Amino acid sequence: MSTNRIGVAIPILPCRSIDEQLDFYEALGFELTYRQVKPNLYACVRHSIVELHFFVLKQLEPANSYSMCYVNVSNVDTVYRTFCDNLKKVYRKVPSKGLPRITKLNNLAEDRRFNLIDPAGNRLLIGQKHDSPRPLQNDHYVVIHSSRFRNAFETAYRLMYAKDEPSEAARVLDLVFSKKEKEVPASLRYWAYVLRADIAIAMDELNVAGTYMNDAEKLPLSDQELEEAAEAAERLKELRVILE
Question: Which InterPro entries does this one have (predicted)?
Fold first, then answer.
């Protein structure tokens, strides 16, 4: 008898409205597989990446929800593009703030992922594991450095993109910005300004976002520094479109 088989876990998540949940997940491309009216409201949806069940919790406060699950996929970029395209068809945009919303794709030490937060505040962390573990000393986002600025940036990056906590990420970056630390590499400061602008947009602070975007664009960068900040530069272009 084999002992290596892994079972399948099916998240059962709360919501305030079954209809609202189903509208959102069907917009994403999920299929409704079961709906129950009595003795209690209950529904099931299925996608090639995961099956989800929902029950009604009337006292639920979506903004304060702690419900989440991690969904491991083999093609996270394809899943992300498909979800975004489907949401555009229904909402005419990709919701990036409030509820529901979907975050951008990001590379972390353990995986490449995005977060999907539904109307009830349930959080799906959808990620693809790296082919091989990244050595801690080589990972751009988790290394512990002597530089307070770099440590703050990496902490804020994870708070924003791994945990989806923009207000905490803003607090961390604003504190280090106020210290006026010297000898911060221009490329790192550029990354930090773009990150702070992204955070501000997530918090609906558009004037703040514009200020940090302008600060990033004013930084004089060498060719090598431009190469180091290439991904941040692409994100800055995306933020300009969002801001407009």
Answer: Bleomycin-R (IPR000335), Glyas_Bleomycin-R_OHBP_Dase (IPR029068)
Q: What pLDDT is attached to residue 43?
A: 98
Residue keyed to tokens 């699950």: 69
The residue segments making up the domain with residue 24 are 12-126
Q: Which residue has the tokens 């995306």?
A: 238
C-alpha span between 138 and 141 (Å, rounded) = 9
* Cα-based distances in Å from 116 to 69, 105, 107, 169: 10, 11, 16, 18
Strand ranges, E, within the chain: 12-15, 31-36, 42-46, 51-56, 68-72, 101-102, 106-107, 111-117, 123-129
CATH number at residue 23: 3.10.180.10
Q: How far apart are CA 209 and CA 9, in angstroms?
A: 40
Is residue 134 within 8 A of residue 109, CB to CB? The reply is yes
**What pTM was estimated for this model as a whole?**
0.75
Same domain (yes/no): 82, 155: no
Minimal CA–CA distance to 161: which of 123, 206, 190, 187? 123
End-to-end CA distance of the chain: 61
Q: Does 83 map to a domain?
A: yes
What confidence tens digit (pLDDT) does each residue in 80-121 have?
A: 999 999 999 999 999 987 899 998 888 887 899 999 999 999
Judge whether 53 lies within some domain. Answer: yes
Place of tokens 């972390």: 108
What are the tokens at 153? Answer: 């940036």
DSSP 141-184: TT---S-HHHHHHHHHHHHHHTS--HHHHHHHHHHHHHTT-SS-
